[in-house]
Amino acid sequence: MYDYLVVGSGLYGSTFARLATDAGKSCLVIDKRNHIGGNCYTKTVESINVHKYGAHIFHTSNKVVWDFVNCFAKFNNYINSPKATSKGKIYSLPFNMNTFYELWGTITPEQAKEVIEKQRFKGTPTNLEEQALSLVGYDIYNTIIKEYTEKQWGKKATELPTFIIKRLPLRFTFDNNYFNDKYQGIPIGGYTQLIQKMLNGIEVQIDTDYFSNRTYFNSLANQVVYTGCIDEFFDYEFGELEYRSLRFDHKVQDTDNFQGNAVINYCDKDIPYTRILEHKHFEKTQSIKTVITYEYPQEYQKGMTPYYPINNDHNQMIYKKYKEKSKSLTNFIFGGRLAEYKYMDMHVVIQSAMNKFGSI
């Protein structure tokens, strides 16, 4: 008998298990995949730590979270400065004075603000396109946002709701740092190594599907920490929650430098992938070869990995029913992006697990 059965070895489950173990509780962590770490999993290929489920760049301004992860890994000083390619030209991200110069040749913030203000949509936005136009204007939207977003969501921008783009930060400085957080970096040696140290001394079983015999697994512990899809937990009683999924195509290239940057977005609609990652640049790995990943968005179906929740009114109504029902299960704790049906950055997931354990 364990104090906690933790279903899922991603950041939420691993953080909870570590905190519980350090508090003297016994834990069993299970995961249906053949590895630990969830979507943070990294695998070494050609001496390069490859982010198997897309780029994971750690960033936070929360010192408690930062100190916690630094107990298990040293972080480099990687700063995320992605680029975007559109119609054969390269643009800087996030939208800043470098981007504005690349678009219009403007050299002062006043000049850039004047151009954007003239191009803004002035009405009340009713769809994603109008929402984006109201925030950044015509040129930025049509050059960098429109076709990329339509590929990502598989729909025309005029058919997408405004909530997908709540804000689009404009920075009137020559600063390509994508995040504003005080602490940023990549764990040296990869995320898998970090999770391994986080789970040190804790019993872990991979290739173990909770739903293959949930009655048995529930009997093993006083409480179950569940980090999977909440609709699956309740056998889709109130309906299926919708997601967007991704497909990753990893390739080894016989060159030491394929694109000169870790992340480049491909905005044109006639290019099927949304971005290419070149993993060696995350840790400045020296290697005569390189590993790149093409990232393809796709419609989610059962059996695929869910990535982005579609948080429209319909899905939120369904999720609220599951959330309300989960409150009646006193022996179960639901946490993480799938169980809470919301996209969360890594530091937010860790903080959420810390808060939950602290509350009990």
In DSSP terms (H or I, runs of 4 or more residues), the helix count works out at 12
Q: Profile the largest sheet.
A: 7 strands, mixed
How many E strands? Answer: 16
Q: Helical residue percent?
A: 25-40%
First-to-last CA distance = 19 Å
* % residues in beta strands: 15-25%
Shape: globular
SS-derived structural category: alpha/beta
| Major β-sheet strand ordering | 7-6-12-13-14-11-15
Please tell me about this protein's structure.
There is one protein chain. With 360 residues, the protein is of the alpha/beta class. The protein is built from twelve helices and 16 strands. The protein has helices at residues 11-22, 63-69, 97-104, 109-119, 128-136, 138-153, 191-198, 214-218, 230-233, 280-283, 313-326, 346-359; strands at residues 2-7, 27-30, 42-45, 48-51, 58-60, 83-86, 89-92, 183-185, 203-205, 221-226, 243-253, 263-266, 275-278, 290-299, 308-309, 332-334. The strands form four sheets. Strands 7-6-12-13-14-11-15 form a seven-stranded mixed beta sheet. Strands 9-2-1-10-16 form a five-stranded parallel beta sheet, covered by helices on one side. Strands 3-4 form a two-stranded antiparallel ribbon. The longest helix is centred in the middle third of the chain and has 16 residues, at 138-153. The radius of gyration is 22 Å and the shape is globular. The mean pLDDT is 97.
